[in-house]
Amino acid sequence: MLEKFIRTVKRHNMFQKGDGIVVGVSGGPDSIALLHLFWRIREEYDLKLYAVHLNHQFRGEEADEDADYVRRFCENIGVKAFIFSKNVSLYSKEKGITFEEAGREIRYGLFDEVMKKMNANKIAVAQNMDDQAETVLMRLMRGTGLEGLSAIDYVRDEKIIRPILDIRRKEIEDYCNEYNLKPRIDKTNLEAVYTRNRIRLELIPYIEKYFNKNIKETLSRTTNIIREDKDFLNIAAKKAYHQVVIKNNSDIRINKKAFEEKHPAIQRRILREAINQSMGELKDVQHKHIEKLLDFIKYGSVGREIHLPKGIYAVLDYDAMMIKKGKRKIERDEFEYNINIGETLNIKEDKAFLKAVVIDRKDIKNISKGQDKKYFDFDKIKSHLIVRNRRNGDRFTPFGMKGSKKLKDFFIDEKISREERDKIPLVCDGEEIIWVIGHRMSENYKVEKETKNVLVIIYKKYS
Amino acid sequence: MLEKFIRTVKRHNMFQKGDGIVVGVSGGPDSIALLHLFWRIREEYDLKLYAVHLNHQFRGEEADEDADYVRRFCENIGVKAFIFSKNVSLYSKEKGITFEEAGREIRYGLFDEVMKKMNANKIAVAQNMDDQAETVLMRLMRGTGLEGLSAIDYVRDEKIIRPILDIRRKEIEDYCNEYNLKPRIDKTNLEAVYTRNRIRLELIPYIEKYFNKNIKETLSRTTNIIREDKDFLNIAAKKAYHQVVIKNNSDIRINKKAFEEKHPAIQRRILREAINQSMGELKDVQHKHIEKLLDFIKYGSVGREIHLPKGIYAVLDYDAMMIKKGKRKIERDEFEYNINIGETLNIKEDKAFLKAVVIDRKDIKNISKGQDKKYFDFDKIKSHLIVRNRRNGDRFTPFGMKGSKKLKDFFIDEKISREERDKIPLVCDGEEIIWVIGHRMSENYKVEKETKNVLVIIYKKYS
Question: Which residues form the Lysidine-tRNA(Ile) synthetase C-terminal domain (chains A, B) (predicted)?
Fold first, then answer.
């Protein structure tokens, strides 16, 4: 395994002799093996190693034991360890982001802090080949482009390195046994645990059995080819961007004629970068937004506007499309999010987390009841799940009723004030409302005798 | 559905007013709906329609009934039908290609023939959105690059069009019911039926249930984005090719310095195209061949050679790599094929077809016995399945024996002549021989009491 590690490190130029390397160590097999591998080559490559561990304060004693284990492990091999303890849960609530996002933000912040303090220059993290394969499948199933399919990068920003990305989880576990490292059981990979576990424990074994015994290697190889294709496209797009776009403070001006001469693959990337420049991030930008903009710049009429998330909007001029940041007054604050089964969604507008899972009917009794939880017949879902606030023309079939009524009339019957109405989140199956959160679920989705799969939606206010 | 059809047709510029269109019609729901849709718009767009049906002579009466149905259907709506009948099975044996390849070759030959005869200019075929999604998943699981992930093209060579590629199979079936078209049950899609059926009946429903209800639309969208990325890369590669490569008869000369200045994504495409130019096709060229060449041109020593399939080889000069077609004498004709579960493989060197399927232990009694069939414990397979002839150093554990022996000694014990030895195909699990075809299977892979999944390998000489 040491050979594989060195091969990956060399192929991707991960560090130079004499470098200082900050290693993120959760205490699980991956990060412990990573640290141990670095430790074995530290003299040959004259490396200065620093371990960073974050106690998430999430699983009480267990988390403390993880921290202790990392401290002792590092002491034993003589590597300086920085152990931090942060209330990730609190931080996530304060910033209105999910627990996973909060954990990542804090961790990388600490890595940077230690890197600067110790005058190091690289941050090593411990994703493996299984993580890579799972990520590709997850992204593919959710919908993605080249960006997503190229999955986890070996090197990012010439700073973050992933030296065990070509090594399988099984090999890492064997390595830990061989060297008697006794890692902690890895529970810190909290990101989309549900989806990832299904991919890991069901989907990949199924594919291995019936389609390709080496699916992990195959996917890893595919992402490596795709990553280079992506890289080439991004270089080309960057060059094109400066031929097409003029930035003036926060306003972005895209020259129509220059834009039209570019290839559609490049056009899409120019639009993404323009939004990125204006918005400061791309997190809430979806494929449909880019397609909308593409249509707009091609076929829209001069003077028209279209709206994008976070108050960004685009206006058409005679020879350009401008992307601006919204001083404009929006009539009503609309929000809409896709629900991915198994993931926690942060609905900032209502300061709440939403999570959807699917369970077998027979497991329903194992779940505690509560007002913040509703059950639906999953097989009645026809389209994709979203959560949004009301739109004009919404209709609803309240539980216990036959036939639908206007949502507005339902609100009136329920004596909900106008101000409140705009804030109430609605879970929908495509166009159809299945749950008016806090009020009523739909008759059309109730769990019945024949129900096999139950969709459980949990909704929790965090303030 | 007519609207969706027209939208796809317009978006991809599939035809012009006044065009003559040859429609491939198997008689199944997809092709019947496709023909019916064209028929409905024929006057508005001034189209001349011709239906082409091929009777594969494979399922006797049923195939004749399919042909009759297509003839009557076309008569009813007043579309000229060309019904052909060919012995596809015989053709496949004569040409040493699989039944599926033979069917495709003959069909497209006939489409071209009718197109020329009737002075038409387009060929319409009936793949749908489900086919698209299945193809992406199949390719992804087998390993592929952008080329494969972009899956089925809407338009190919400005001639072959696929106007129902955005429509789901279910919609097509509903359409056939609505218009009472009574299509034949589609059995003609013989390509990789086993793998495809598993994807269609198990994998996609599983993904729909646990990950994404709209996986088909998602995959279709992904392929559409990727197709444009691929297109851009191919345009760039084509341009680069002519800056780097000089062709002299069948010899291809790749300038090292010019090559090295290109991006790796482009370098790979230049190498593929160079092999294509030299070999005339890319069918047997695998990812590993391209990687080998890439390493060779970068790090190889002047004067060295490496071999590629079909007698193609590469030689290094001081300032160039040459790709040549082999007058050179090869010491022994080596062959090697990957075995994909569920597909028929043609082993030309031994004039035989090989097919591998996996079944449940309990279904073993439903399968007829025979010398050309062997059973293995599928769960004992550790790597990927290949079939090849012998290599130096091969070892083998014959059925009923403990411990391995040299394959050479096995051949001597079995009194197999030297000439014969090179021809005998060996099924291998990675490096390990599991079946010396025609002689003995391996002790290490036998079906035992605990065996759950049985790998059945069928091997049939066709001459």
Answer: 385-457
Tell me the nearest-neighbour CA distance from A294 into chain B, angstroms: 13
Separation of alpha carbons A218 and A207, rounded Å: 12
- Work out whether strand B395-396 and strand B405-406 pair parallel, antiparallel, or are unpaired: antiparallel
pLDDT in tens, A142-157: 777 888 888 788 998 8
Architecture of domain B2-215: 3-Layer(aba) Sandwich (3.40)
- Residues of B with Cβ-Cβ distance to A132 under 8 angstroms: none
DSSP class of B445: G
A29 belongs to an annotated ligand binding site: yes
Quick one: CATH architecture of A2-214?
3-Layer(aba) Sandwich (3.40)
Residues of B in contact with A261 (CB under 8 A): none
**Known binding site for ATP: residues of B?**
26-31
In chain B, CATH 3.40.50.620 sits at: 2-215
**Residue B332 and residue A5: Cα distance in Å, rounded?**
37
Cα radius of gyration (chain B): 25
Domain ranges in chain B with CATH number 3.50.40.10: 336-461
Task: Spell out the long-range contacts of B151-160 with Cβ–Cβ below 8 A and sequence spacing 24 or more.
Answer: B151/B223, B151/B227, B152/B127, B152/B223, B153/B227, B154/B8, B154/B12, B154/B14, B155/B12, B155/B13, B155/B14, B159/B121, B159/B122, B159/B123, B160/B122, B160/B123, B160/B124, B160/B125
Nearest CA in chain A to B235: A263
* Amino acid at residue number A88: V
CB atoms within 10 A of CB A434: 25
Inter-chain residue contact B225 with A266, CB threshold 8 Å: no
Task: Say if residues B163 and B34 touch (Cβ distance below 8 Å).
Answer: yes
Nearest to B145 among A141, A225, A384 (CB): A225
pLDDT, tens digit (0-9, with 9 covering 90-100), for A98-133: 777 888 899 999 999 999 999 999 999 999 999 889
Q: Which of B216, B231, B325 is nearest to B278 (CA)?
A: B325
Model pLDDT for residues B407-452, shown as the tens digit of each residue: 999 998 888 888 788 889 999 998 899 999 989 999 999 998 888 8
Task: Determine whether the interchain pair A218/B141 forms a contact, defined as Cβ–Cβ distance below 8 Å.
Answer: yes
Query: Does the annotation flag A30 for ligand binding?
Result: yes
Architecture of the domain spanning A249-325: 2-Layer Sandwich (3.30)
CATH class of B336-461: alpha beta
